[in-house]
Amino acid sequence: MINIFEVAETNRMIEEENLDVRTITIGISLLDCMDNNVDQVCSNIYKKITTIAKDLVKTGQDIEKKYGIPIVNKRISVTPIGTIGASCCKTTDDFVKIAKTLDRCAHEVGVNFIGGYSAIVSKNMTNAEKLLIQSIPEAMKESELVCASVNVGSTKTGINMDAVKLVGEIVKETANLTKENDSIGCAKLVIFCNAPDDNPFMAGAFHGITEGDAVINVGVSGPGVMHEAIKKAKGQDFGELCETIKKTAFKITRVGQMVANEASEALGIPFGIIDLSLAPTPAIGDSIADCLQAMGLERVGAPGTTAALAILNDQVKKGGVMASSYVGGLSGAFIPVSEDQGMIDAVEAGSLTLEKLEAMTCVCSVGLDMIAIPGKTSAKTISGIIADEMAIGMINQKTTAVRVIPVIGKDVGDTVEFGGLLGYAPIMPVNTFGCDAFIDRGGRIPAPIHSFKN
Amino acid sequence: MEKGIITVVGKDSVGIIAKVCTYLAEHDVNILDISQTILDGYFNMMMIVDATHASAPFNTLTEEMKNLGDDIGVRIKLQHENIFDKMHRL
């Protein structure tokens, strides 16, 4: 039987170390909502989402109450709209109409984000997908809860450099259109390489076409719990350190699995995957940077940081896979800057640079995330940053992403406040040497040699 | 069997257990086990209860136990047993 110390340990994790389930995300297929009339498509989408997801928020709240564990976000991901709008959207305005419909659905069912305003263009773009990408700035301005993503490359296809060039301009334009709110539109836009079909985390979640009609994916979290555990392993060798991280990841993931099963049963929707990501928040004690520093770094960004992150990322997976039979999504350690107080402190102390962050993305779960850069950064330079990150993903057969915010009107030395879970960030300097001629070449970077596995 | 874990944490005073037990009896919740200890200087009590035949839904009990705790100045939490089972048992 469970003893009082085990009960106290679990409750200490919840009450003092910020253990929570970060998100329950319902993936909903919109393939059966397609039509050649955009208003009909919007009406189909509205009906389908508000029917399937109507009990999501309440179910989440019931589970929170039953087990006494917070479930921070309830979200929805949908089939990439670049596909859904293929036959009905003739202009960018048509796509924006769908974005507004998604926003209305999200408000109606009470979720905090809806993802899937996306295009998968890793090899090339259809006309509709190009239109969707071009509509992103307007869609981000006109909607509140809609998240957009574009997958511009993969290990199997190489990198679509025409798309990389285009999304550089789109990031810049989104920043411009939302400049009254510190360019916040860019916080809802992610550029991917090797994007997974079943990611429950925003802003990059979409319901891939490999998925069924509806699915429950759950993202667990717990940097605070991990930090406390690592602190207890102070002075011990790497073997012991890894054991500690693994055991903790196992415990956290088991809770996520339980919540997923419960939600799946209550909603009558099949369970998909658990995403094992350690996702920080701006709250004190909920930081990945703290975990890395507890391993023995003076500050994140110091030599040793990439190795420490590699350990954390790998051990989280090793502990987590034993706790759940279906692990997917991004799974690993997120290293956003604005959402992690320890990262922000490291940037402000001069320890963490964009270049070091890029190196860290080789071993973390995703990529350059929530990084505020000077508003004057050119679209070509942003494309260059994206191309570098996509190349890391393509060559290393991992998911990488870029979510940078060129904050219009601000420069190095300023800070920007996004609010809530998105946090605040100091503007980070970007290398000012150009890459225009490189980006202007156009075309495709061929798939790497190790993609030929057949 | 629908088992729950009740934890009571706070400053020790007269009648805490009596009030919790009275509430449980009134709602047909059976107590299976009680243990208590002092953790970090605080009074910690844990009860394992069977709520299978409870006269109210589990989440109502959760809420009312929390309110009872607020009334008597301690923190009372009722949680379904599964969260501890999953975390600590293979």
TrEMBL record, chain A:
Q: Which SUPFAM superfamilies match?
A: PFL-like glycyl radical enzymes
Xref: InterPro entries: UPF0210 (IPR007841)
Q: How does it assemble?
A: Homodimer.
Q: Which NCBIfam families match?
A: PRK05313.1
Give the family from UniProt: Belongs to the UPF0210 family.
Please state what the protein is called.
UPF0210 protein FYJ79_02440
UniProtKB/TrEMBL annotation, chain B:
**Matching CDD domains, A to Z?**
ACT_1ZPV
| Ranges for domain ACT | 5-79
Q: Per its UniProt record, what InterPro entries does this chain match?
A: ACT-like_dom_sf (IPR045865), ACT_dom (IPR002912), UPF0237/GcvR_regulator (IPR050990), UPF0237_ACT (IPR022986)
Pfam families attached here? ACT_6
Query: Which family, according to the similarity comment?
Result: Belongs to the UPF0237 family.
- In Swiss-Prot or TrEMBL terms, this protein is called UPF0237 protein FYJ79_02445
Organism whose genome encodes this protein: Sharpea porci
